[in-house]
Amino acid sequence: MVLFALMIAMLLAMLDNMIVGTAMPTIVGELGGLEHLSWVVTAYTLATAASTPIWGKLGDMYGRKGVFLTSIVIFLIGSALSGMAQDMGQLIGFRAVQGLGAGGLMVGVMAIIGDLIPPRERGKYQGMMAGVMAVAMIGGPLVGGTITDHLGWRWSFYINLPLGAIALIMVTAVLHLPKKRSQTRIDYIGATLLTVGITALVLITTWGGTEYDWLSSQIIGLGVLGVVALALFVVVERKVGEPVLPLHIFRNGNFSLVTVIGFLVGFVMFGSMTFLPLFQQTVQGASATNSGLLLLPMLLAMMVVSLFAGRVTTRTGKYKIFVVVGGGLITLGLTLLSLMDTDTTRFTSGAYMAVLGAGMGFLMQTTMLIAQNSVEMKDMGVGSSSATLFRTIGGSFGVAILGAIFTHQVQATMVERIGKAGEKMTSGGAQMDPKGLAQLPPMIKDAYMHAVATGTHHVFLWGAVISIAGFAAAWFLKEVPLRGGPATPAETPQADRIAVAETV
């Protein structure tokens, strides 16, 4: 029952952006403010990323249950207010409130599972977590379109309220964890510096190459601000008694390595997920709804492989092989996807996506498992939040950098094929509505399809090159025994301490 409630909470956090993305054209049509459209997503992403490590630390200091319930309430308040927004400014502000709660949802779910289930047993439930992700990615656009068409865009936010209420009631009733009360002051300075640093990084990846040129004073200024804030953050964290992000957790070799791997997985995963639907809609002629369904081979492979890896990990206690194989499969899958062109069939692209999905299935939950096994129980929250944060930031950088590569290649190909007219067509962001594409003259339509195919080729090729670093890092992981497994004589004192802690 507890796990069911946690899965609902995770679904809330992951489903929201998928649903809202489908409703955005309708929202803009009613509220106006097209020039501020990107901020509806950016405000949510910023608040989620900046609050993630703080939620994790608060859970470690004051108890997981109360902090998790608070994050659900904040998310529901933000959802209700977003649904009642009367203009774009209000919607952006309320989306920030919603994102603040969402940061606590994801970290809370992972940390509570880390508290309740020993790492050795956690593999049994990996399939459930991967299943939630698949449901969100496939069902989000479908649900969003249906709700917007039949109930109105405001219900894209209101739909969170009954789901959140169920999670709130179930967690309150069935989750029983020890209460904590830390006497140490919250590290406000560290939290502020970390928030400024993360905000600067996310804004660089959001604005770079779109709102502002990469070498503009705004982007360079944000880069300087981010570096200074994070440098000061490191200095502060070395001196405070209860740091918001204890730096000692990075002294563990496995934790540092899996953080790097998580960053790279986020980079290539979110980058590829962004451009696959675009390729399917523009080059393969799929509708927006069908492009979501065409991701099924990747998501099903991810879910099945994650379940398999979890079961084997529970039975054997071995996990390093899955990270190595996962890194190799992601590199192979991205390399195969880079071979797609205008003649690639949906079956072929589906097979390539299945390879990528299998690699993601080996890595997604296993990296979190290793991160949680590499920290002490008292640092479970910050360990979980750090792994989540670096994956999120990796995704932001992936979308931004791979997006810049895509845009450059599309523009270059259009200029090569139809001259100055091609540059003019793609100067606004290199994306064209599929309906508008169908109305173009055959020569221009063919040029644009080839341009998008060329852009996605370079995106996946560069993704494959970058993923090699994650594959290489996986080989340096150490097979540290998972907590909660059979104890050897040398491990008995530690096993006894764990058993006592779990009993309490």
Count the helices. How many?
Answer: 20
- Give me the Rg, rounded: 23 Å
* Helix/strand/pairing category: mainly alpha
| Percent of residues in beta strands | under 5%
What does the largest sheet look like? none
Could you list the spans in which at least 5 consecutive residues all have pLDDT below 50?
487-504
Overall outline? globular
Specify the helix fraction band. Answer: over 70%
Give a count of the beta strands, DSSP E runs of length 2 or more.
Answer: 0
Mean pLDDT: 80
Topology of helices and strands:
Blueprint: H1 2-31, H2 37-62, H3 64-83, H4 88-116, H5 119-122, H6 126-150, H7 155-158, H8 160-174, H9 188-207, H10 217-237, H11 253-282, H12 288-293, H13 296-316, H14 320-337, H15 346-373, H16 380-418, H17 420-426, H18 434-438, H19 442-474, H20 492-503
Give a structural overview.
- The chain is mainly α and 504 residues long.
- It has 20 helices and no strands.
- It has helices at residues 2-31, 37-62, 64-83, 88-116, 119-122, 126-150, 155-158, 160-174, 188-207, 217-237, 253-282, 288-293, 296-316, 320-337, 346-373, 380-418, 420-426, 434-438, 442-474, 492-503.
- α1 runs parallel beside α6 (126-150), α2 packs antiparallel against α9 and α16 (380-418) packs antiparallel against α17 (420-426).
- It starts with a helix and ends with a helix.
- The model is unreliable at 487-504 (pLDDT under 50).
Give a short overview.
Helix content is 78%, strand content 0%. It contains 20 helices and no strands.
